[in-house]
Design brief:
The structure holds two protein chains of two kinds. Chain A is mainly beta. Chain A is 4% helix and 43% strand. Chain B starts with a helix and ends with a strand. Classes of the chains: A mainly beta, B mainly beta. Chains A and B meet through strand 8, strand 16, strand 17, strand 18 and helix 1 of A and helix 2, strand 6, strand 8, strand 10 and strand 13 of B.
């Protein structure tokens, strides 16, 4: 199954929002069929996964939720979502239900809102990523070098256990020169202002790398007029089609190890 | 022989709708694969693409140059430009479409990488795939990015494009997993990376999944279109796309006043 998340940040006037969708993108490629379900939000308190039901989510329906919904209760928490067939209480490990089994991922529309404008991408956090040790190599050309543009980086991490563990991400240039290190936590929507790092972003590609942890790398930019861009980078396997793609992923990750 | 049998069995699977593949297999070993990316220069839009040495992304230990061919197609499916680039190891360049001297308002393009040392690709039965990052801008300062959407085409030995988009005898439906009722105008971009005419049926639906309108678009080979949808009363919440492609995932532009959001549906 897939989990979803809010891209919360600490920027004034920006809000995170998500369209959670309870239907498959393609009946041909999806083994799972849409079912009546309960939409939960969940977060870690460090010892348990705290699950709360948000609403009933009938089959083929959607639910849109804005971070304002959680404002008072959970201001500092990273909020995740799951669509479950039964109501859940607190858990020691994440629940991975037999749902969202599909060749094409069941995704959500993950958005950032400024005034009445949105930027978004189609995303999900697959449960198989929560069960294994993950690392990161994200090659991004999406950092915009302009004094009127602010660039930000999200690293969404979710693991099976509710513990908060620290790990580092290095920002490298294509010569493997380390430019900065970011401190991340597991089970967190980590958010960084790339303008605070004293880097002159005059290259066309930057590499965000970690051997200790990983997740979904997402790049967000906004200019002073409120134009926004939001997109994730492909995992290394997406540079190849068919065959043993994970062989090439290993090569790439080994190369960028420091 | 083994390869041909594998291809034949995959094609049968798609034909009979039995555990179909999302993308067909290229008939040629090592053939480079590309999305059929969208570009636009209408209505003050500009397009940018970040082109990287793909060898450095796949096997970075092997330092080699990357010879790249780019083919641009107009909206009516005419090849309007062929470009070639030679990228040094780890090099990434910006392709700004305003530099190409093309008058077409919109269309599609594909990018094929050619490497000297590609034995590892053969050994692992895999293909290079270009699904990189396109930026769209209305002021040439701020770029709104979206990554590649499909593995649409491959280039064979004779430099002929071959489609990788599986087709069915019967129409298949794709359901974009997002809502449209925050925006009073949006555009659905579809193209046809194949040699046969294709009919797209676009269904516009309200919050109760009732059909409000249906729009048909016929696309000849290598054509591109965008379907403008006015949603002034914000009644349209969902869309569905039907075509003979198994996987009709569109590119979507949603407008909020003078700004826009671009994403794959």
């Amino acid at each position: 199954m897939n989990y979803y998340f809010l891209l919360k940040n600490n920027i004034k006037n920006l809000q995170s929002e998500i369209d959670i969708i309870n239907f498959s993108p393609s009946k041909v490629f999806s083994k799972s069929k849409s079912e009546d379900a309960i939409l939960h939000y969940f977060y870690s308190n460090g010892e348990d996964w705290v699950f709360k039901d948000l609403c009933n989510l009938p089959k083929d329906q959607t639910f849109t939720v804005n971070e304002n919904y959680f404002k008072n209760e959970l201001k500092e928490k990273s909020i995740f979502f799951s669509i479950n067939k039964k109501k859940l209480n607190n858990q020691k490990l994440l629940i991975d239900e037999n749902y969202h089994i599909s060749k094409i991922a069941w995704r959500a529309n993950i958005k950032i809102k400024y005034k009445e404008c949105y930027t978004s991408y189609q995303g999900e956090y697959p449960s198989n990523m929560t069960k294994k040790k993950v690392s990161l190599v994200s090659c991004s050309p999406m950092i915009q070098n302009n004094k009127n543009i602010k660039n930000y980086f999200y690293l969404v991490n979710l693991i099976n256990r509710p513990e908060f563990d620290n790990f580092n991400i290095n920002i490298l240039d294509s010569n493997k020169q380390k430019l900065a290190t970011l401190n991340c936590m597991t089970n967190t929507v980590n958010f960084f202002d790339l303008n605070d790092l004293n880097i002159v972003y005059n290259k066309n590609m930057y590499i965000f790398q970690s051997t200790d942890g990983g997740g979904i790398p997402i790049y967000f930019s906004i200019d002073r007029n409120g134009q926004m861009s939001l997109e994730h980078t492909h995992p290394p396997t997406e540079y190849t089609l068919h065959g043993n793609r994970f062989f090439f992923q290993r090569l790439k990750k080994n190369f960028w190890k420091l | 022989m083994k390869q041909n049998l594998r291809l034949f069995s995959h094609n049968l699977r798609n034909f009979f709708n039995f555990n179909p593949l999302i993308y067909n297999l290229p008939y040629k070993k090592n053939a480079p694969v590309s999305d059929f990316f969208y570009f636009r220069q209408d209505n003050s839009f500009s397009t940018l693409f970040y082109l990287s040495n793909i060898s450095s992304h796949i096997f970075p230990e092997i330092k080699q140059s990357d010879f790249v061919r780019v083919f641009l197609y107009s909206n009516i499916g005419k090849r309007i430009k062929e470009l070639e680039f030679n990228l040094e190891p780890f090099e990434t360049i910006k392709l700004n479409f305003k530099d190409f001297g093309i008058n077409e308002e919109y269309g599609s393009f594909c990018i094929f990488h050619h490497l000297e040392k590609k034995e590892l690709l053969s050994q692992k039965n895999t293909h290079i795939a270009e699904r990189g990052y396109t930026g769209f801008s209305k002021d040439l300062n701020f770029w709104n990015f979206v990554h590649g959407n499909h593995n649409s085409l491959y280039l064979d030995n004779k430099k002929i494009l071959k489609s990788l988009m599986p087709k069915s005898l019967f129409k298949k439906t794709y359901y974009p997993q997002l809502t449209f009722n925050q925006s009073d105008y949006f555009e659905i971009v579809v193209n046809n990376p194949s040699y046969k005419k294709i009919l797209y049926e676009l269904y516009l639906k309200d919050e109760n999944n009732n059909i409000i309108n249906k729009i048909d678009e016929t696309l000849e080979s290598f054509c591109t279109t965008f379907i403008p949808i006015k949603n002034n009363n914000k009644k349209i919440k969902f869309i569905e796309i039907k075509s003979n492609f198994y996987f009709s995932r569109p590119l979507i532009f949603k407008y909020y006043g003078e700004y826009f959001d671009v994403l794959h549906g």
